[in-house]
Amino acid sequence: MRFRTKAAIMAAFAGPAIAGLILTGAGPANAAVTTANTPHASSDPFLGFCSPYNLERWDLRGYNTVDVTLGTTPYTYAVHFNQRGSCLSGWLTDTNIPNGPQTGPIHGYVFRNYVRFSFTYTYTGETQGTRTYTGTISRWGGVSGTWSDSTDSSSGTWSLAHGVRRACPSFFPWFGFFEFGNGCPVPFPYYFYY
User: Is 38 within 8 Å of 117 (Cβ atoms)?
Assistant: First the structure.
């Protein structure tokens, strides 16, 4: 009876330990080791915390389209996301900027099912404002939310035209359980996933 109890306890700990060894690349043949997860600083998703070492649930990397509404008028912006852990970067193109660069950098972060990024635009050589996009990611990968502009206090809704994918392949478990699960490294470290 004692042996069965010990075996059950050891089996419960073996799965996460083996998954941890796989993810961190522990072993004599591996020269590049992934750094362990750095926990998020707060339960508030919009404090601006970002770490390239965080495990994440969603992978936003790649080209997409931001569909924006201002009142009843729709606008469409091309966007390209780069993601490293919870840190977002990339660029956004706004063809409605008449006298300044129409393409500029974006910066932001992902936290579980929350996403936030900002685009600072210029007009006639001066910084005019920052447009901030805040949203949530549905369980199917759809991204939507609200945006606001620091210059004229305008705001509206936005969504990504194409859904985002899970950071973990379907065969790979999230680290953690239920809503506390952190996910996987972004980018995922195994070439066959892409």
Answer: no
Q: What is the mean pLDDT of residues 106-123?
A: 91
Half-sphere exposure of 12 (CA within 13 A, CB side): 6
**How far is Cα 160 from Cα 165, in angstroms, rounded to an integer?**
12
Over residues 26-64, the pLDDT tens digits come to 444 444 443 343 444 344 454 557 889 888 889 999 999
Query: Is residue 50 within 8 Å of 86, Cβ to Cβ?
Result: yes
What is the domain partition of the chain in residue ranges? Answer: 34-194
Could you tell me if 164 and 143 are in contact, meaning their C-beta atoms sit under 8 angstroms apart?
Answer: yes
Q: Find the DSSP H helices in the chain.
A: 2-24
Architecture of domain 34-194 in this structure: Beta Barrel (2.40)
Q: Read off the tokens for 6.
A: 């010990």
Query: Could you give the CA distance from residue 117 to residue 43 in angstroms, rounded to a whole number?
Result: 18
Closest CA to 131 of 161, 98, 153: 153
The Cα–Cα gap between 41 and 64 comes to 29
User: What is the tens place of the pLDDT at every residue in 147-173?
Assistant: 999 888 899 999 999 999 988 876 666
CA torsion through residues 42, 47, 50, 55, sign: positive
